[in-house]
Structure formats: structure tokens, C-alpha cells
Specification:
mainly alpha, two-stranded antiparallel ribbon, 5 helices, about 70% helix, elongated
Length: about 140
């Protein structure tokens, strides 16, 4: 008797899922650290070095996720984790304090951390679409 359901997950699939979960957690941790170090000053000028570092780390996390999965939507999980951590930092704490203020540095952090990894994901998605189109053409 055959079943229409997918086969039981193998050890490799479980390991890949665990790695993607850890990369998503790393994305959230990167967001929290980037927010904490956002008000860093270089002399008397606010210099958002954590925004640049978050952009580089997000690209590396997406590249790491891409080694585990072929789907661009699953490779986006570290970026989803980063965004969830960013949104979590927007809420006030129990004393009414907020980590992210309504300042231009918040937009700089959002742009520099998300845009490079988003462009990389767009490239992955377009490569996947071209590969699917080529395989459909051959069939």
C-alpha cells in the first residue's frame, strides 16, 4: 500500500532544519547586538558601525543558509530572524525605555542590514526561476 504523504524525515533533513533554526536565531541575535551598539560615536559624530557589521553578517548568514537549502525562501530565514529581533527591540521595556528611537540611525540600520542580504536573496530567487524555466523547457 502506498501513501500520498511525504516520507519520514531523514537524519540529513533534521540536521538541515536544525541548522536553519540556528541561523534564524543568529539573525535575531545579530539584530539585538546591532541595536545595542547603534549609538556608537566616533569622536563627537554618531557612526553606525553596527549597521555595517549587521549587513555583512546578514549576507554571511544567508550564504550559510543557502549551503543547507536550495530554496531561496528557506535561505531567507536568517533575515526573517533579524527582522523579528529588530521588531522586538522596537517595543518598550517594563520601565518604558526603548532601544530603538525615532531617529535617522534607525533607518540607516534597517537599510544597511536588510538591503544587501535582500539583494542576494533576489539573485538566488532569479537563478532558481531561470533553472526551473530551463528544466521545464527541456521536458
Amino acid at each position: 500500500m502506498t501513501s500520498g504523504t511525504s516520507p519520514a524525515p531523514t537524519g540529513r533533513r533534521i540536521l538541515d532544519s536544525a541548522i536553519l533554526g540556528l541561523l534564524m536565531f543568529d539573525g535575531a541575535l545579530t539584530a539585538v547586538l546591532a541595536v545595542l551598539f547603534l549609538p556608537t560615536y566616533l569622536g563627537s559624530v554618531a557612526f553606525p558601525i553596527s549597521a555595517l557589521a549587521a549587513g555583512v553578517v546578514n549576507v554571511l548568514l544567508v550564504l550559510g543558509a543557502r549551503t543547507v537549502t536550495d530554496r531561496a525562501s528557506m535561505a531567507a530565514l536568517p533575515l526573517v530572524g533579524w527582522f523579528l529581533g529588530f521588531v522586538l527591540c522596537m517595543f518598550g521595556g517594563p520601565g518604558g525605555d526603548a532601544l530603538l528611537l525615532a531617529s535617522p540611525l534607525t533607518l540607516v540600520l534597517l537599510g544597511l542590514a536588510v538591503v544587501p542580504a535582500g539583494l542576494l536573496l533576489l539573485r538566488f530567487a532569479s537563478e532558481d526561476a531561470v533553472a526551473r524555466g530551463n528544466s521545464a523547457r527541456r521536458a
